[in-house]
Amino acid sequence: MSIDRDLSASIAVTRFGLGARPGEIAAARTDPAGYLKAQIAPTGADQPEGQFESAAQRIADLRQFQTLRRQARRDAAPSANATADVDAKYDPVKVAQKMIREDTGAEFLARMRLASATDASFRERWALFWFNHFTVSAVKLQTAVVVGPFEREAIRPLVFDRFEALLVASSMHPAMLLYLDQAQSVGPNSTVAGLGRMGVPGLKQLSGLNENLAREIMELHTLGVGSGYTQADVTEFARALTGWSIVGLNERRYAAGAGRQPGEFLFRPAFHEPGARTILGRTYAEAGVEQAHAVLKDLARHPATARHVAVKLARHFVADDPPPALVARLERNFNETGGRLDLLAQTLVDSPEAWSPDQRKFKQPYEFLVSGYRAVGLAPEQLNHIAPVLAAMGQKPFSAPSPKGWDEAAADWAAPDAIIKRMSWSEAFAQATTPVVGQPMELAQGALGARLSPAVATAIARAESRPEAFSILLMSPEFQRR
User: Fold this and answer.
1) Are residues 220 and 268 in the same domain?
2) The pTM is what?
3) Domain for residue 236, yes or no?
4) What's the per-residue H, E or C state across the chain?
5) pLDDT tens for each residue of 26-53
6) What is the pLDDT of residues 280-296, one digit of tens each?
7) In which domain, by residue range, is 122 found?
């Protein structure tokens, strides 16, 4: 590292991490790179504090809620006033809805509290990157209830494992199977499709083959656009994936026999398209659930996947237009190690391009709020303090607009209206927090370290009040960028 240690410590905490808490830059000064490497843990990323249900439990809750809703509609059918006198707090449908909504909100709050308070924010940023890479969004009711469990179960434990393990876990998770409509995908020549054509009751309306998961795994999770795969490869992969589903609420006997509970992953042989599949020039023999596993293993180790992941990592941590040398170094490490993510993280830390003094990344709304809380050593106490603000800034909690996840480009977050909303939040946050924090200049030095420019330091010193000084810090170019 050719830059001085003070600046390196600031970069370590504000670029690799999620912003500096009081004293954190000083703690990183002795060995900035070592400070980051010490956060790479074989056990994965930290988990938000709290008692939260598993994805399977949430799905079972949702299915039960849907059953209650149907029952309530049937009961109300004879008369428009049949349920008018029922106290809403005893309405089973409303009670179920409220529980699901509150559980999801509490989980997001716990996740943001972890980000705001952790002393290992590089580890947390690394986990958030992979969660965005394997996006599951709350844009659907059936996935809104399992986004949090998906991150806890499929992403956080494996972020320093091999890429293959992370790919398989995310692809098999009930949240991904529901989000990308895989759970009901049916092979055209499968047993149930044949029964449906014969007119067997309950099988006439089968959804047919769904290619969403196969396409997104190839396009977004592994190979990337323009890597050489064809539509035929997508279709063949989708056929290999048929049968990957979840246990239904009314399959308790079958689930018990399989050792699984409603909502958990279940391979349905009767839905699986029989036969060998040829994908990217390689033939995969019929092997039931293992056929798609074999495809995933090869996709995880494909050279195009190494390139795709390297570009995304470099873009997230360093620049929207990532340095070619950094991309090449990450790509080479991925290929040489078989996708070991702990070694990939170390390579990122050891790359000189990642330590450039230039601040070329603009913070997304979530990062911005988290870094604001970290600057004053606090964490959000209530969901309504953060959720409406994030939604107004265009980053509604757990609700990426598509399977591509949240975009990295500064242009998507730095529009004039978005900047005005950041300013409004900064002023309100400064008013609410400055009575309990230190002097403005101390805050600025603790939050930015050697990145604090003379111009911003002067503006803070000349501010007419402590809240005004803190809001100037929050809206400064050095704080908005990393």
Assistant:
1) yes
2) 0.94
3) yes
4) CCCCHHHHHHHHHHHHCCCCCCCHHHHHCCCHHHHHHCCCCCCCCCCCCCCCCCHHHHHHHHHHHHHHHHHHHHHHCCCCCCCCCCCHHHCHHHHHHHHHHHHHHHHHHHHHHHHHHCCCHHHHHHHHHHHHHCCCCCCCHHHHCCHHHHHHHHHHHHCCCEHHHHHHHHHHCHHHHHHCCCCCCCCCCCHHHHHHHCCCCCCCCCCCCCCHHHHHHHHHHCCCCCCCCCHHHHHHHHHHHCCEEECCCCCHHHHHHHCCCCCCEEECHHHCCCCCEEECCEEECCCCHHHHHHHHHHHHCCHHHHHHHHHHHHHHHCCCCCCHHHHHHHHHHHHHHCCEHHHHHHHHHHCHHHHCCCCCCECCHHHHHHHHHHHCCCCCCCHHHCHHHHHHCCCCCCCCCCCCCCCCCHHHCCCHHHHHHHHHHHHHHHHHHHHHCCCHHHHHHHHHHHHCCHHHHHHHHCCCCHHHHHHHHHHCHHHHEC
5) 999 999 999 999 999 999 999 999 999 9
6) 999 999 999 999 999 99
7) 55-157
